[in-house]
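tool=predict chain=A
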Amino acid sequence: MMVAAIVCGQCAMLLLAMVSVRGSGILLRKTVTPLACRCVRAAGIVLLGMSFFLQMQVMETLVIAAINWIGVISIEIVMTALTCAVIKNIRENG
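tool=predict ok
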């Protein structure tokens, strides 16, 4: 269950990065239409909620689950930022 929560959270971060102004230029090489932006953002938020729900199923207490989820999400945010930086660097230099 913990692996599923991490995968859902990482996918959510990548989806949310895709619809940001800077992220769409890096990950998609073009801007996203407003309707697609809203749909992808909603999918990212749903995946974040699913990640939190799965995290609650793994832990015994909700407080510990919430604290652990915040920690995992912060690592996923850093991983997404690093992924975007690597992709941007590869496209600029390669």
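The chain has four helices and no strands. Residues 2-93 form one domain.
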